[in-house]
Amino acid sequence: MALTLETESQIYRSLRAVFGAIAHLVSLGFTVFVAVIARPGSSLFSWHPFLMSLAFSLLMTEALLAFSPESSLLRPFSRKAKIRFHWALQLLALLCAVLGLAFISYNKYINGKAHFATWHSLTGLLTVLYASVQCMGGLALLYPKLLKNWTLAKLKLYHATSGLIGYLLGCASLMLGMCSLWFTTSVTGVSWYLSMLSPVLTSLVIMSQVSNAYLYRKRIQP
């Protein structure tokens, strides 16, 4: 028996809600897992994996899911409240990322190790720089009149697209970090594969949620 369009739409919304809930749990679980094995405060290095996972796994995931029609934690709130929440989490994520970069850079300095000598470190640096530019670009949405040649709709589309790219860069950096000697020594077997799966899963959910949130806004706007 063929499903009606309304039934199919309801099924897709339910699936997005389920996977969105999974993304919430996975991003939190992964961050807690890294905190447990890193034990922040036990060494100077320990702050790096903790702060980076907090920034790119938990805070950025929640900041992006805030606009999801199905899985946002702020669904009862106004769009203005969601925007403020998004801004707060993104700024906090950027602060954590900058601090994480500072800790690892200083740790390498005092131990006489080379800086930015691996794909993980280079990708991490690029991600932090990209996130900084992305946050500054977000100011254009707060003051769209400063860019008279750009419509607000285009600014939102470009900001969402570039934000998604930044999130994927962050996830790629996390995955490269899980290939490091420290992580592969601390985490082995099935736990390592599950850890690698975490940013992959949240990336897929975020890509779907961002695109659907944009389509949802277009559908409800006159």
UniProtKB/TrEMBL annotation:
Top-level class of the enzyme under EC nomenclature: translocase
EC number annotated for this UniProt entry: 7.2.1.3
Protein's UniProt name: ascorbate ferrireductase (transmembrane)
Cofactors that this protein relies on: heme b
PROSITE patterns associated with the record: CYTOCHROME_B561
Membrane topology (UniProt): Multi-pass membrane protein
Listed Pfam families: Cytochrom_B561
Domain Cytochrome b561: 14-217
Transmembrane segments: 17-38, 50-67, 87-106, 118-143, 164-184, 190-216
UniProt keyword list: Electron transport, Heme, Iron, Membrane, Metal-binding, Transmembrane, Transmembrane helix, Transport
Localisation: Membrane
